[in-house]
Amino acid sequence: MGLRCLPLHPRHQAGQTEGSTIHFPTPRRWGGLRLAGTRDLPLVARQAQLDSYIDLIVRHDLSDGSQRRTRSLKDWMRAYAASVSTCTTLDSINRSLTARQGIQPAATTARTYRDTMASMWMIDPVPGWMPTENELARATAADKHQMCDPALAARLLGIGTAHLLGVGHPIVRTPIGQPRRTRMLGFLFESLVTQSVQVYADLCQADVRHLRTKGGRQEIDLIVEGPDGRVVAIEVKTAAAPRPGDTRHLLWLRERLGDRLADAVVITTGRDAYRDTDSIAVVPASLLGP
């Protein structure tokens, strides 16, 4: 099954969802496919289930099972959760532990933690896309960090809906007086979209990567490459509609790939699905599907 263009029309012929997806950042809705059993539970029960799941994972594959080692691994997992949807180096994640806890695990210990979590699918990093085109020779192979489910990342960080949306933080407000959302909202929303895209890409026998050139001059959140070599490029934006400049890297990639680019898409938290004046597909996250 190959990749194909989305059948969207210009904005005046746009489709629309029944509601905005800005309410997505809740542990209930971010239960994902792997933790689907928690989604319909009350808040307290849901948090307890997530905590139990994390504790089971932490204790599952530690050689000594000591309390100190368990606590160290959980601290590392929190630091990793704070780095989701970024290409932060493993050393930087370790150094963040020093700033928060005053203790930094040895590099070999951190690699063991990473490998253990990866083998159990607790973390699911997205590899860098390394295309063969000469124009993209500056692409880097660094992974973009992701956990298996954004609900786990949010729980590890102690982040709930109110925190994500800025509710209860009146000191930090936008110029129009609305609460300013935490920067983690964008990272966790991208994590949610990534999880969904990976599931749907599997149905098409497609691979999911991300693109970042050296120095971060060009970055595209998700690259979906089908078995025929055609590509769908996806940017994820925590906004109802793309802002000026949000599609510049998609347009840059289109110039270099030509017909190999099956489609270019911006995933939003809004309601409207349409194509902009550059024929970029704008799609609400709630409309994602295989």
Automatic annotation (TrEMBL):
Sequence ranges assigned to domain DUF4143 in this UniProt record: 66-238
Positions of the UniProt region annotated as Disordered: 1-23
Pfam families to which the protein is assigned, alphabetical: DUF4143 (PF13635)
Protein name (record): DUF4143 domain-containing protein
Lineage: Bacteria, Bacillati, Actinomycetota, Actinomycetes, Actinomycetales
